[in-house]
Each structure stands twice: as structure tokens, then as C-alpha cells.
């Protein structure tokens, strides 16, 4: 989502981070470039004007830290402002109340509300170990209730079923009563999509809200709607006491302006972002991490959390133990690594969280994608068990068979085997202590401003 915004802001900042002195003129020049970047990303004009005014004031009146260059200090000011725009800090769900904690999900139709309910239920079950009950009061959309029921079965949480002819307010009340009787920790209520200009539907959601008194009222908004998403959020917030926002389709090719505008305009925090179609593709929203990602500094903390939560530790430990004993790393092991990389979001998710990616040439970045990983997988899967363990036996006729089976060319197979041989050599060096030298060379990468 932030690729284009990150690239344009990084390019704008690149000319100033090495400066030994900041002046009113070069600050004005860089702010104009940042202004264009933000407006092109669909950030609200009001937000852009207010933010750039604060950046300019802070930059002109700021005392430079002795450990940083003026350019690096300016980068720090920009980052702090981006964090402030997006809400300053992560706002978690309020789970510290007498159960059941009632959460009401509202929003327009087609924003991904129902799938977000399923994702949130899974998140609360897996991360907070809560007993979850989910219900739908959407009696207007065909199969909406059935869709949510299927989702809850997929993620392993309970569903309170209702009839399509029942009144939404009665369904909500009955589900709350069920949650109390059976000692559920959280009740998630999915509602029908509605336009904020539809008075009848807005009155209905207000009545439901009054009847069940939710602890959390979360607006689900589509990041692809750009500036309008912030206006929609503002309208909903004027009619309902929202407690937060769930921003969906953040993984799409959007401009990123919604995330930078919604919190500032509504006064409500973005609590989660949807980053894909999978049921686990929901992340808590951390303004400081997103700001670092936008500025090309990466998001190492989120990457570490992805690895901790999604990597199969037993399998990784088994591979490491085998390598330690036999000093071999074969294609079966490599296939396991590729599949685990896919489980944590794939190469695209990994790359956007690594520091310094924005400064790499486009020709290099274009090669770091999930398509190349999938090609590697199908090449390995087209090999026999013996070939995976002993790739050195793969010669002419075998290469042609593998290329034909994987839908690739012999040249692709040759290139893959060459890359794998280089990886094997690197693994052996790491085992002999070469990792120390590798880490020593990487030390300089973590200094402020090193990636711009």
C-alpha cells in the first residue's frame, strides 16, 4: 500500500539527509516535494497543510542532536509528524471489562466487514485466548448470515445462528443473552452495510447500539476509497460513538492516504489493518511502525512478530539440527523454507518491512517478489525425491523434464540450481563462523538516516 508514497518521500528526503546545514530555503524546497507526495497519495488537504506547517516550525526551531546530522534530524522530525498524524501510539481493544465484551462492527457495503469480523475473531482467539461468539444482524444481503457462519467454522470460533426474517435488534439482544449464559469472553456483532446518508439504516444501527451497549464500536473502512474514506469515517463518527477503525485492503495497490488522514480527521484510532485475503491477514496498527515503513526505514518489529507467530518452529529446528549433523542443506529443506516464507506473508510482505529497500534500484526490487518464489517452488516440486536430495545428478534430460513439468525453461532451471548452489556455499560459511563477518558488515545499516 505504501510503496508509491514511500518511494516519493524517500526521493524527496534523499537530497537533504546528507546536508550539513538546514536553511529556510532548502527546508521550503523539501516541504514542497513532500506536499506533492502526500497529495498524490490522497492525503486530505487539511491534514497536509497542518502537518507541513508543524514540520517547518519544528525544523527551523529545532536544536540538532550532536549524534545526528541536520539532515538526519529533519528525517526524525518528519517521522514524528507522521506518527502524530496516525494517532501517536497503538490503541488496543478494550478487553478489561466484565465479559462478554461486546464489539459492534459497522461500515458501508463491500468494504470487507464480514471477513474482518472473522479475522478479528481469529485474532482474539489465537492471540488473547478468548472464547468468542459471533453473530450477524445483516438480514438484507442474501447469504450474509451463511457466509459469516462458514467463516467462523474456518477459524474455529462459535456462531450464533439467526433467521433472516428476525429483526436485527432482536438478533443482537438474543446473541448477547446467549453470550452471557454460556460465559463467552467476547461477542462480535456483524451488521449490514449502510450508507451514512441513509437515515433509516443509520437509525437502525443506533437502536442496536443502544440495545447492546458495545464496549467497542469499530468502523470498517476500505483503504481503496482514498480521501473519501476519511469523510465516511467522519460521518459515521458523528452518528455513532466510534471507538476505532479497521482499515481493509491495505495490501492493495492503493495510495495510502486513508491511513494518514482518518485518525486525524475523526479523532478515532486505527486499531487494525487488513493485509490480505487469508483469515490471519489482520494486523494491529502501530503508527510508529507504519511511519518507519513509509520513510524506508523498514518495520523490523512487525517482521519479528510475523516470524514468531507464523513460522513452524519444530520444522525449522529439525532442519537446523539436520544441517548441523550432516552439513547438508538439500532442496527438501529449501522447499520447507519457501513454504514458511509464504506463511508469513510472502516475499512482498517481507521486503516492505526490511530497512533500505526503497533505496535499492528498481531492477533489483522488481526481482524480489512472490512470483519468483512460486517459480522456485514449482521447479522443486517437479523433481523426484532423489533429485531433491542430490541436485548434482540433475543433467540435460532431467533438466528438460523438470522444465516441462514446472512450466518453465531449461534456462530457468539452470539459474535456479546455480542460486541454490550459492546458497549451500553460504550456509556452510555461516556454520564455520562466517555469520560474524556478515553481521559486522551490516552494523552500519542501522545508523539513523542510513536508508534514505
Automatic annotation (TrEMBL):
Assigned EC number: 3.6.5.4
Keyword GTP-binding: yes
InterPro entries found in the cross-reference section: AAA+_ATPase (IPR003593), P-loop_NTPase (IPR027417), Signal_recog_part_SRP54_M_sf (IPR036891), Signal_recog_particl_SRP54_hlx (IPR013822), Signal_recog_particle_SRP54_M (IPR004125), SRP (IPR004780), SRP/SRP_N (IPR036225), SRP54 (IPR022941)
Enzyme class: hydrolase
Family annotation (Pfam families): SRP54, SRP54_N, SRP_SPB
Origin superkingdom: Bacteria
Assigned keywords, A-Z: Cytoplasm, GTP-binding, Hydrolase, Nucleotide-binding, Ribonucleoprotein, RNA-binding, Signal recognition particle
CDD domains cross-referenced by the UniProt entry: SRP_G
GO biological process, one term: SRP-dependent cotranslational protein targeting to membrane
GO MF, one annotated term: GTPase activity
Annotated binding of GTP, by residue: 107-114, 190-194, 248-251
Keyword flag Nucleotidyltransferase: no
Gene Ontology CC entries for this record: signal recognition particle
Reactions the enzyme catalyzes: GTP + H2O = GDP + phosphate + H(+)
SMART domains per record: AAA, SRP54, SRP54_N
Localization per Swiss-Prot or TrEMBL: Cytoplasm
Domain SRP54-type proteins GTP-binding: from-to ranges: 269-282
Chief place where the protein resides: cytoplasm
Function: Involved in targeting and insertion of nascent membrane proteins into the cytoplasmic membrane. Binds to the hydrophobic signal sequence of the ribosome-nascent chain (RNC) as it emerges from the ribosomes. The SRP-RNC complex is then targeted to the cytoplasmic membrane where it interacts with the SRP receptor FtsY. Interaction with FtsY leads to the transfer of the RNC complex to the Sec translocase for insertion into the membrane, the hydrolysis of GTP by both Ffh and FtsY, and the dissociation of the SRP-FtsY complex into the individual components.
Domain notes: Composed of three domains: the N-terminal N domain, which is responsible for interactions with the ribosome, the central G domain, which binds GTP, and the C-terminal M domain, which binds the RNA and the signal sequence of the RNC.
Subunit structure: Part of the signal recognition particle protein translocation system, which is composed of SRP and FtsY. SRP is a ribonucleoprotein composed of Ffh and a 4.5S RNA molecule.
Family: Belongs to the GTP-binding SRP family. SRP54 subfamily.
Protein name per Swiss-Prot or TrEMBL: Signal recognition particle protein
Amino acid at each position: 500500500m505504501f510503496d508509491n508514497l514511500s518511494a516519493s518521500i524517500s526521493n524527496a528526503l534523499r537530497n537533504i539527509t546528507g546536508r550539513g546545514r538546514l536553511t529556510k530555503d532548502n527546508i521550503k524546497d523539501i516541504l514542497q516535494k513532500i506536499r506533492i507526495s502526500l497529495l498524490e497519495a490522497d492525503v486530505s488537504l487539511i491534514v497536509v497543510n497542518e502537518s507541513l506547517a508543524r514540520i517547518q516550525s519544528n525544523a527551523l526551531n529545532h536544536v540538532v542532536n550532536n549524534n545526528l546530522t541536520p539532515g538526519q534530524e529533519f528525517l526524525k522530525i518528519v517521522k514524528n509528524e507522521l506518527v502524530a498524524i496516525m494517532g501517536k501510539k497503538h490503541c488496543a481493544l478494550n478487553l478489561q471489562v466484565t465479559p462478554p465484551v461486546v464489539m459492534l462492527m459497522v461500515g458501508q457495503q463491500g468494504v470487507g466487514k464480514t471477513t474482518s469480523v472473522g479475522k478479528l475473531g481469529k485474532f482474539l482467539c489465537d492471540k488473547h485466548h478468548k472464547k468468542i461468539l459471533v453473530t450477524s444482524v445483516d438480514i438484507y444481503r442474501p447469504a450474509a448470515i451463511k457466509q459469516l457462519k462458514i467463516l467462523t467454522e474456518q477459524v474455529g470460533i462459535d456462531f450464533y445462528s439467526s433467521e433472516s426474517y428476525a429483526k436485527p435488534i432482536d438478533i443482537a439482544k438474543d446473541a448477547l443473552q446467549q453470550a452471557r449464559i454460556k460465559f463467552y469472553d467476547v461477542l462480535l456483532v456483524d451488521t449490514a452495510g449502510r450508507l451514512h446518508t441513509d437515515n433509516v439504516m443509520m437509525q437502525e444501527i443506533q437502536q442496536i447500539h443502544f440495545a447492546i451497549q458495545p464496549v467497542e464500536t469499530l468502523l470498517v473502512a476500505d483503504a481503496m476509497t482514498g480521501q473519501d474514506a476519511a469523510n465516511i469515517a467522519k460521518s459515521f463518527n458523528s452518528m455513532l460513538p466510534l471507538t476505532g477503525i479497521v482499515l481493509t485492503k491495505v495490501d492493495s495497490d492503493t495510495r495510502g492516504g486513508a491511513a494518514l488522514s482518518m485518525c486525524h480527521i475523526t479523532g478515532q484510532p486505527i486499531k487494525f489493518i487488513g493485509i490480505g485475503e487469508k483469515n490471519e491477514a489482520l494486523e494491529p496498527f502501530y503508527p510508529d511502525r507504519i511511519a518507519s515503513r513509509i520513510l524506508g526505514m523498514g518495520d523490523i518489529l512487525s517482521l519479528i512478530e510475523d516470524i514468531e507467530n507464523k513460522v513452524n518452529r519444530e520444522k525449522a529446528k529439525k532442519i537446523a539440527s539436520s544441517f548441523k549433523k550432516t552439513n547438508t542443506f538439500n532442496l527438501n529443506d529449501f522447499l520447507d523454507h519457501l513454504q514458511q516464507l509464504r506463511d508469513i506473508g510472502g516475499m512482498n510482505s517481507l521486503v516492505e518491512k526490511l530497512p533500505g529497500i526503497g533505496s535499492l534500484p528498481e531492477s533489483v526490487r522488481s526481482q524480489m517478489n512472490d512470483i519468483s518464489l512460486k517459480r522456485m517452488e514449482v521447479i522443486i516440486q517437479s523433481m523426484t525425491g532423489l533429485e531433491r536430495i542430490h541436485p548434482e545428478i540433475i543433467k540435460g534430460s532431467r533438466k528438460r523434464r523438470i522444465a516441462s513439468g514446472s512450466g518453465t525453461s531449461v534456462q530457468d532451471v539452470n539459474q535456479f540450481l546455480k542460486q541454490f548452489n550459492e546458497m549451500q556455499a553460504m550456509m556452510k560459511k555461516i556454520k564455520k563462523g562466517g555469520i560474524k563477518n556478515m553481521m559486522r558488515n551490516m552494523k552500519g545499516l542501522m545508523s539513523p538516516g542510513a536508508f534514505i
